[in-house]
């Protein structure tokens, strides 16, 4: 069959290579070496499992077990945990705030006499309330500062970061430290800077109730407030107008006895940009109508502006916290005014 010596050697090498390959597979090599007994293979030889031979698209039998041990949770479980974490985080945030609280802006007139009532300030946990103190001319009324030998715990100090860090007790005033003349219980109160007329209030817990005493610069008596919390609404800003002149009031102008009083309904309505229905709007000559508005009402001229009126003398006036004033003047054809930088100019009127 192998008459050619070269072919004989090639066949012999192929046979040796096949035997070496079989010997490298443990199961096949063991089965090959097993000897029959009485013409039969032993039970151990018959039960030998051949080594794993990979096929296209197949997996090793230990792959699933290894994957389970290395990453025991599935992608679906990870997404479920993320959703659960988000729900828990939202619940924790809702527990520390009042999610449905609606902010409001209000104005209250306060007296300093012995019969003055105690005003209520409504707050909400997690939301700050700002109280601005003004006098009856609309000028800011600063909060008094004092040197307190026994400051109340958590009282604000002169440090500018007191309002930022929420009145941390670590920054509370020590004996002899200059601080705002304020006393509060159950709430964090602070003043942004010395000389400010603004007080910031934040509840310490969800449902505290307490009182607030505020001393204004040069005032004859402290102001008293009752602090409450509300889950549905709160006063984001409260303008507290004191019914007398403060230390930074504008120069006083003496008016005739029949002049409209500050706080009269017509003055307040025009100050808010809502004149009475029978007020006649006037055109402005000599100035921008966006800076000055005027009406003729009951025999007088009412001017709403941020500029100063020099002449003629006005009969009544009222001012807002943003610097806008409303003036009641006798019926006159020309008004002399002073604008920014001391510039003077005259304004006349015409019926629209």
Automatic annotation (TrEMBL):
Q: Highest taxon of the source?
A: Bacteria
For this UniProt record, the keywords arranged alphabetically read as follows: Signal
Q: Which InterPro entries match?
A: T4BSS_DotH_IcmK
* Signal peptide coordinates: 1-31
Q: Name one Pfam family in it.
A: T4BSS_DotH_IcmK
The protein here is known as: Intracellular multiplication protein IcmK
Query: What does UniProt list as this organism's lineage?
Result: Bacteria, Pseudomonadati, Pseudomonadota, Alphaproteobacteria, Acetobacterales
